[in-house]
């Protein structure tokens, strides 16, 4: 435990004296010809590449290289690279929006940078200057600004990634790395209005994250265990998996879960979300929803939520809302939860006032229509 805790603080032995990532060394090489823009309505999440990407590499003897923004192109990597063999791969998910002032904005990006550094530390990947990476992401967004559809609910999804590129099969921390950032235009995750409620299938025979594991970090390897169960759930007619470990609810697919409970006395509701016990990814959206609710006078309780409790609340007609959140979907309400062992579905008939209010508040802050604290950060000065 202590060993990787110190790695998380970026104190990687032996490589702390090489040059850190320096945004002022950025070179920009623009593409000779620009790609045609697809019609926004035709966008499928994460499938369109833009004209440029950002690339920086780490070598243990020379440190972080001069960052480059250059034409989007395949990477060339040694087949022995650590990322292919030992899954040294971490990433972030962020979005850039166009505000009413025509400026590109990021949402609480320093939270993503801190989480990226924590994820890299957990994989024993080299530390980096978080502010420098954020500066570079703002430059990339400014260069790719024409790709942000200026339509409500549309944005540019940003995927900062760090992979281990140590080219050797001997199992060891990767002392070489590549940090790259790509962007892709995205539309609303759910196109119908009002959005169709999501159906979940409770799954406890497959496990996404376990105590002492890596579920609290954004590592590529966390997503593999969900691929097959997700396909099985889809075949049974459910949109997503509800991950349950020993009766305890953790997340749904790759989204954080909130539950709205009617008080027994009938005087309002309580909102709860699973506590960050190491199996839950600490979402920026989760944190923001908690803070927005608190501002409105609703304290969210972070505690264990069990399937036994959800079933009991449903039977007492006190299970008011279950909703999911993450950068990609923002907020989505759950309509039903398929129970294991042929017990049928828990049905949430609606309405969903808490989820609706949170979705609206988040979107208007993200799109710069409402200023709230320093959550919306402008990218460009033009
Ligand atoms: C990224 C992610 C989330 C959502 O995090 P946000 O910062 O809100 O986008 C939730 N759960 C998992 C497992 C994730 O990977």
Automatic annotation (TrEMBL):
Top-level taxon of the source organism: Eukaryota
Family the entry assigns: Belongs to the class-IV pyridoxal-phosphate-dependent aminotransferase family.
Annotated GO CC locations: mitochondrion
Required cofactor(s): pyridoxal 5'-phosphate
Primary enzyme class: transferase
UniProt EC number: 2.6.1.42
N6-(pyridoxal phosphate)lysine sites (modified residues): 218
Gene Ontology terms for molecular function: branched-chain-amino-acid transaminase activity
Pfam family, one: Aminotran_4
Keyword Zinc: no
InterPro entries, per database record: Aminotrans_IV, Aminotrans_IV_CS, Aminotransferase-like, B_amino_transII, BCAT-like_C, BCAT-like_N, BCAT_family
CDD domains: BCAT_beta_family
Organism: Guyanagaster necrorhizus
Annotated catalysed reactions: L-isoleucine + 2-oxoglutarate = (S)-3-methyl-2-oxopentanoate + L-glutamate; L-valine + 2-oxoglutarate = 3-methyl-2-oxobutanoate + L-glutamate; L-leucine + 2-oxoglutarate = 4-methyl-2-oxopentanoate + L-glutamate
Keywords, sorted A to Z: Amino-acid biosynthesis, Aminotransferase, Branched-chain amino acid biosynthesis, Pyridoxal phosphate, Transferase
Protein name (record): Branched-chain-amino-acid aminotransferase
GO biological process: L-leucine biosynthetic process; L-valine biosynthetic process
Keyword Amino-acid biosynthesis included in the entry's annotation: yes
